Amino acid sequence: MHSLIPFLKAASLLVNVLLTFFLVCVVGFEPDFSYPLENVTIAQGRDATFTCVVNNLGGHTVSGDTATARVAWIKADTKAILAIHEHVITNNARLSVTHNDFNTWTLNIRGVKREDRGQYMCQVNTDPMKMQTAFLEVVIPPDIIYEETSGDMMVPEGGSAKLVCKARGYPKPRIVWRREDGAPIVSRSTPSGKVEKMVSVEGEMLTLSKVTRSEMGAYLCIAANGVPPTVSKRMMLHVHFHPLIQVPNQLVGAPINTDVTLQCQVEASPKAINYWTRDTGEMIITNDKYHMTEISNAYYSVQMKLVIRRFHKSDLGGYKCISKNSIGDAEGNIRLYEMELQEKLDFSDDSPEEELDENSDNRSYNGFQGPLTESEDISLEPSVNSGCLTIKPVYFLLLVFFVMI
């Protein structure tokens, strides 16, 4: 009998250990969440994922029943059950649930839409129930509403223009106006009444008053809300006015048999038809004698050039540069005269006279030009530098004789 006592004590100890292990491991460890459910911000059209990690789920019973606790996904704001364990309950083909056979459950939402936004819950059906929630924020990149946005616009010089730009998106897009060429935007409608020049202007409407031709150009409406990509629309502002001609040199002189260039600066909008005529009204056309070009300096500015080759006496007289558009016309006058150049020639045995005239022809000459008008009193003769007077000895003796007398 006494020999059984140690054995009974060992058996009792083993039973106590097993009972303690069962109470602690099976009954005492309830399911818990290893990590909090994280909020998700996703752009519309992309895929969103919620991950729920639950420990000690397999050995827990529900309300004394032998059924194992389950993980469920619920849309908290609508209280709609989306999925239980690995089975999707809701009728939404874009939703799916995956389980890694250990402790991780994942809710996947493909091609997220704006209506998917809201609170999502990962729930374990213990007693009492355990759950954690996270928010799905669906953002939408900006998009220009073209039917509510201005297009290209035309205003007369001195008039007003209102450019409107509307955009949709979430969060609400911020709209900024800039000029495409980087020039400042001119505001004349400030409370103080002063003219302000700004690199950019914020707001859905851009108001331009007392518009000048320098404000003509492309304006950009840029919409951004922090969700890429930023979008923009280009609007062209046309400012219309009748042609204006400026003549840098109204009186041009050049030597015979040289090439002469006449110039006029034209400003006009809409685009004008530009041409040259003689003062007799005869229109000049491009040929071997005349060469005409136009160089654009801005949206509304053009430089007209007329090159007269091998200037001849028959080319003397007046020339007109004429510009016409749908609003009006303008003309500029230039008078061309002959300039006689006197050259000092040194004759020597090493420089035969016939060689001096070899390259005297076919020179290009822009003329003796200046901001002159025909009414001004000018000398057409070029100035010649004075030098020493050379007198032969015999004439010198006669000069001395007359002085002595």
| Number of β-strand runs | 29
State the low-pLDDT regions, or none: 12-28, 344-363, 369-397
Q: Kindly state the percentage of residues in helix.
A: under 10%
Distance between the termini: 184 Å
Commentary on this structure:
The protein is mainly β and 405 residues long. Helices cover 10% and strands 43% of the residues. It is built from three helices and 29 strands. The strands form six sheets. Strands 11, 14, 17, 19, 20, 22, 24, 25 and 28 form a nine-stranded mixed beta sheet that branches. Strands 2, 4, 5, 6, 9, 10 and 13 form a seven-stranded mixed beta sheet that branches. Strand 9 (118-124) and strand 10 form a beta hairpin. The chain starts with a helix and ends with a helix.
Looking at this protein, list some descriptive labels:
405 residues; 3 helices; seven-stranded mixed sheet; mainly beta
State the gist of this model.
The chain has three helices and 29 strands. With 405 residues, the chain is mainly β.
Helices, strands, pairings?
Layout: H1 5-28, E1 32-33, E2 40-43, E3 48-55, E4 71-75, E5 80-84, E6 87-88, E7 95-99, E8 104-109, E9 118-124, E10 130-144, E11 153-156, E12 161-164, E13 167-170, E14 174-179, E15 185-187, E16 196-198, E17 201-202, E18 205-208, E19 217-224, E20 231-246, E21 251-254, E22 258-269, E23 273-278, E24 290-296, E25 301-308, E26 317-324, E27 329-338, H2 353-356, E28 363-364, E29 368-370, H3 393-404
Parallel strand pairs: 2-10, 11-20, 21-27, 22-28
Antiparallel strand pairs: 1-3, 3-8, 4-5, 4-9, 5-6, 7-8, 9-10, 10-13, 12-18, 14-17, 14-19, 15-16, 19-20, 20-22, 21-29, 22-25, 23-26, 24-25, 26-27
